[in-house]
Amino acid sequence: MSRYSAYVASIVLAVVSVSLATWHPHWWWGVAVFAGLALVGTADLMQNKSTLRRNYPLLAHFRYGLETIGPEIRQYFIQSDTAEVPFSRQQRALVYQRSKHANDVRPFGTLQDVYGMDYEWINHSIAPAEIAEHDFRIVIGAETAQPYSASVFNISAMSFGALSAAAIRALNAGARRGGFYHDTGEGSISPYHREAGGDLVWELGSGYFGCRNQDGSFSDERFIAQARTPQVKMIEIKLSQGAKPGHGGVLPAAKLSAEIAATRGVPMGVDCVSPSRHSAFSTPLELLQFVARLREMSGGKPTGFKLAIGHPWEWFGIAKAMQEHASSEPSLLPDFIVVDGAEGGTGAAPAEFVDHVGVPLNEGLMLVHNTLVGLNLRGRVKVGAAGKITSAFDIARALAMGADWCNAARGFMFALGCIQSLSCHTNRCPTGITTQDPTRWKHLDVPDKSARVAEFHDNTLRALRDLLCAAGLSHPEQLGPEHIMRRVSPFEVRSLAALFSYLRPGELLDGNMPDHAVFQDFWKTARSDAFMPPAHVLRLRDSKLT
User: Fold this and answer.
1) Neighbour count for residue 64 (Cβ, 10 Å)
2) 101: phi > 0 → left, psi -120 to 50 → alpha, else beta; which?
3) Residue 82: which pLDDT band, with cuts at 50, 70 and 90?
4) Highest mean pLDDT among 264-268, 424-428, 454-458
5) pLDDT tops 80 at residue 92
6) Residue 81 pLDDT grade (very low, low, confident, very high; cuts 50, 70, 90)
7) pLDDT-based confidence at residue 77 (cuts at 50, 70, 90)
8) For a disulfide at 309, which of 22, 195, 326, 359, Cβ 3.0-4.6 Å?
9) Is the pLDDT confidence value at 508 over 70?
10) What is the pTM of this model?
11) Residue 27 pLDDT > 80, yes or no?
């Protein structure tokens, strides 16, 4: 294979040099050089700390060499420092340091432009607090038969198929070790999710993988068989994914292994297609009825849904259905809602969807939080946030804006050793994380990487604790928008409380529309019986057509 070419060449050249050295002693320099390179390559193959070195013996050192070059030169060579790459090298470095329990302090102050637009910070207190414990948790589904105490920081949805078997093993073992949950993604629960016994949130996408009939429809019997196992703590219906909302996923037949097919319950030899919409429901009310049905069949486990906000009237339709049936028995309220931002990641999606479809996390989270507050339902429905969350400050900002907890995908991938080569969709991931090629993923050392996953989680929560202490707070639930500041111009700074319009509790119930343009335009005409645009939107569209 080409990735072993340098290593093989070093061995061949070492042997040739030995032969030539018997003819002329000057060739002993070649023996020393090439034998030394062969020894380095052999050491690369034998070690288990770096998957990249195991997959690319000798060649990996060229990349590491470039990373040692100063920042003025490195930016021209390292792809991760270009604007096209989603995460900067500094962000990845922070994850690597925390996952390896390395020193993450740095000299010379902030790397940010404090006078640049959108620079954010958390205000500190003159009287900092002291918090002994950093394992912050939130109870989800308090009214269910099996409520779940979740960490405020967890592994976001990534499927087996998108990730390798070794990556799934390492993530779940890390979750078990650190006491946080691992979202399965819509690819269902594989044997590799089960192996370590870490807490699972089972995500059901429109393909109903793992609980589907042969025609792709939802199967009650197969759902019950999986959902009632003790390892599954919550059920999450995926309505849309932040990076490609409104777009179904496709796993090509060439990448569909027998294990993936068995896990998802799909036939071999054909593309595995995740439809763009669900077949089990078609209206907001039917969605809530499906939530209640899954909660009952799972044995009373917290059940909710994940969505990226798109048309606001569709979310308002769901919220109106929640309002109309908040007191019904059994309850139709979801136990939780996860808001996925448009900046969320994916292994592959059309460029237009990645860049220009869906509402970013801040705006989507605010809309969901505000709506629930305005309906006096916020205390009964927990809200999670996902979308490019990596650091403790990212968590603090999301919690301040209304989330109860956060999920992260890329941060935990970095903890596994992801170098952001942007080859997730090619099946040639150099670190064995997003490939189904066993010659690549078997080099990912599960015990080592699971320890890094747990360390990243633990050290990030320690950093969150330190932020809270600095702000004079004793728990993440005390964070509010008044604590986060943003520079909006060279001469103006606003808190998030001043930048966003917040509804008062019950404000949507008193008949008076809040001073908020989206609610004024779409709330009264949204429907709980259909995902339909309001009448005035249809009239506007028709007038343009004529």
Assistant:
1) 11
2) left
3) very low
4) 454-458
5) no
6) very low
7) very low
8) 359
9) yes
10) 0.86
11) no
Which of these, 196, 173, 166, 199, lies nearest to 184 by C-alpha position? 199
Angle between helices 392-400 and 446-470 (to 10 degrees): 50
At residue 89, what is the residue type?
Answer: R
Average pLDDT over residues 54-61: 76
Q: Please give the pLDDT value at position 36.
A: 76
Contact 486/119 with Cβ under 8 angstroms? yes
Q: In terms of pLDDT, which residue wins out, 224 or 331?
A: 224
Is-contact 151 453, C-beta < 8 A? no
Bridge-based pairing of strands 182-183 and 200-204 is: parallel
Q: Using CA atoms, how far apart are residues 495 and 476, in angstroms rounded to an integer?
A: 18
d(CA 174, CA 197): 10
What's the CA gap between 128 and 122, in Å, rounded?
13
Query: How many CB atoms lie under 10 A from the CB of residue 189?
Result: 23
Highest mean pLDDT: which of 2-6, 196-200, 384-388? Answer: 196-200
The pLDDT assigned to 344 comes to: 65
Contacts 24+ apart (CB under 8 A), 366-369: 366/401, 366/402, 366/500, 367/309, 367/312, 367/315, 367/518, 368/309, 368/315, 368/337, 368/339, 368/402, 369/401, 369/402, 369/403
The span from the CA of 186 to the CA of 50, in Å, is 29
Closest C-alpha among 524, 344, 538, 435 to residue 160: 435
Cβ-based neighbours of 373, under 8 Å, separated by 6 or more: 502, 503, 504, 505, 507
Residue 16 has pLDDT above 90, yes or no: no
Cβ–Cβ under 8 Å, residues 194 and 185? no
Q: Which CATH class is domain 137-496?
A: alpha beta
Residues 360 and 343 sit within 8 Å (Cβ to Cβ): yes
CA distance 182 to 155: 5
Q: DSSP string of 6-23? A: HHHHHHHHHHHHHHHHTT
pLDDT in tens, 384-430: 999 889 999 999 999 999 999 999 998 999 999 888 887 777 788 88
3-state secondary structure of 251: strand
Do residues 341 and 362 make contact, with C-beta atoms less than 8 angstroms apart?
A: yes
- Distances in Å between the Cα of 137 and the Cα atoms of 134, 149, 367 are 9, 6, 24
Report DSSP state, residue 156: P
Residue span(s) of the chain under CATH 3.20.20.70 come to: 137-496
Q: Rounded to an integer, what distance in angstroms lies between the CA atom of residue 299 and that of residue 494?
A: 47
Question: In the block, which residue shows the tokens 């294979």?
Answer: 1
CB of 122 closer than 8 Å to CB of 483: yes
Q: 287 Cβ partners below 8 Å, 6+ apart?
A: 237, 239, 281, 305, 318, 321
Q: What is the dihedral of CA 274, 357, 337, 454, to 10 degrees?
A: 80
Cα–Cα distances in angstroms (integers) from residue 449 to residues 70, 183, 285, 411, 494, in the given order = 28, 18, 43, 13, 41
Which of 358, 394, 374 lies closest to 505 in space, CA to CA? 374
Compute φ and ψ for 445, nearest 5 degrees: -80, 110
Is residue 544 predicted with pLDDT exceeding 60?
no
Q: Which residue has the higher pLDDT, 60 or 456?
A: 456
